[in-house]
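In this supplementary section we document a worked example of the pipeline. Step one takes a protein sequence of length 660 as its only input; no multiple sequence alignment statistics are reported here. Step two produces a three-dimensional model, which step three serialises into structure tokens for compact storage. The input and output of this example are shown verbatim.
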Amino acid sequence: CPRTCRRCGSFNVSREEVLRSQAAAGPVGQMVSALDNCTAGASDECAGGRGVWGRIWELAPPVGENTAYRPPHDLAGYKALTDGTSHSDLPPRDEKGCLRYFRVGDRGDMRGTVRPMLRELGMCESKEEVGFTFLWSRPWEKIEAFFRPKKITPGSIVNSIAGLPQQVGQKTSLARLHVACMARAGYDPLDVIPKRGPFCRFTSRAFAVRKMGSKLQLPYRRFREYNVQLNEEEPEEHRIWILKPQGGFNQVGIHMYSLATADIASDSATAAWLMQRVPEGTWVLQEYLMNPMTYQGHKFDLRVWALVTSLDPLRVYLLGTGIPKVSQWNYSKAVEDVKEPCIHVLMPGTNECFQNKRANVLTPYPTRTNTQEWFDKVIPSGKDFWTQRAWPSVEWRVVELLVLARDAILHVDHQLKRNGLRYKRVFFLSPDILIDQHGQATMVEVNVNGYMIGNLHKSFFPLHEEQRAVFRLMGGNGFPKQHKYAAALEQQTAAFCKRRKAKCTPAAEREIWEMVHEDMHCAMAWYRIFPTGEDRPHTARLKGSPSYQRSFTFLDGVMFDWLQHGWAPLHQLDQNRSVVVAQTPPSADLPPPKARAKPRQQKPASAAKIPEAHLNTMHRMPAGLAPAGGDASADDELAVLRARIAELERKGQGEAGRGR
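The serialised model returned by step three reads:
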């Protein structure tokens, strides 16, 4: 425990020790300490509040957090670390024909949705607490749960990443990370982000507030100044603020309030407004998006599905369609409609929202965001606006959030690898996202419970096949297509690591293999959003920012270099945005791959040699075509290969004839 955390056991420690720890955490920790040291009426600074989120975390940072850790910066530092992949020396199937042995949690969706999907993939259910090689349960909350070599078999897949749900999934997480981002970018954490500032836009501003009897703890002067700044940049007759209980769930206890211009005319007016509206308890006061993008005039938010398949190197995949939750009432930001939950928060809505005389029920209800109908009916409308501005903004917000969150928990991942605990830790998260009229995305909250809805609400959310694809992507069925390209992949990574100035560790090479396997097993519009090439705006800006460069590890650098290497197995995307892989032979221009253990699911195959110039790199998922079915058949695959060769010949590319 002392090697993985900064202290052991519970966080019932002295106040002095906590304040010393916070002060050592840098500017953000010092701001928390400044407010925690305040007593009611002690000084103007305390009354007005320099603190940003108040005592959100009481006397402790999130479980597993260590902001002082610095990862190794070179090859030598990573030599002692194993990989975190699903590679296993076990045979593809055991004598019972089982690919893996799984365990699922006791929640209804895990039993009713996940369990049948895993059985369909060829897994068998384990009845024992040990011996499983695939686990899908509630995220592990305790760090020590990850350090159990007798329980976790090498190459297992577990749907938990140590410390990540605590970093991104609490009601206060986004506000906390937002402040850390503002400090990192050099902004005043309580000012409006400069118009041209590209970073820290992944969530709206939030303030923590606590009311105890007649005493209110909140930086109310800065709260007022923030609203004054907003009005100077984008004037509004009033602004809406949402009050949420810390630790709340499923929209229970949410209040919406109108803040008029007169309420920010003076410090005393703002203080009076807060005292009248904030109930007893501890709350988060969050800015409301006044001018959202709409669907036929209705407000919507998106449930977005993302899958983290590795923490270091960071690998993130995204489902290429958002899951729309659209209000049944026309949007209004008028003062008299502030308290109408059917407009602002209940989406699609309750029976009352559908039956009320103000309802304007959408028929048909939109079920995905990558169709022409969606592009035509959103406001602003158009495929270009959605695919080139709005959706890339969603990608950016997800990646920036995870890069920020990773810094504090990377030490646990590295300690697991130093201890030789080699298994794959993945995490399924589903942020709720709003998009404004300019196409800029912002997160409302991040759901981390791993909920798989199945076909429970298929009239609104028909996502069964997309959920099945999650388990294939992460390697639940052993990456069965890898036999088509494994020899060529090993040949290419060997050549890449030999030429690379900083070389690779064996673990780094296995991480490259794992990413290629994941890419080649993407289906139903899942695709990788990190790492990517610098053609993607979020990668180019994050890599080019001095404040973010320190967050990228040595292994991230290896993966960026691999993408520049420009090789991937021959593949195409079918009509469902699923990857169809063709036989990819080793290159005649490179040394043959060294003898290694046979890849899992190895199958004999023969095919004509195809020039390397024809080997496509992994496509970024274009957002224009909706998924509509399962994986492509072998006949489809052959047709795709023939069509690709014919296309190249039509274009007159001379290299199409070499090597045949």
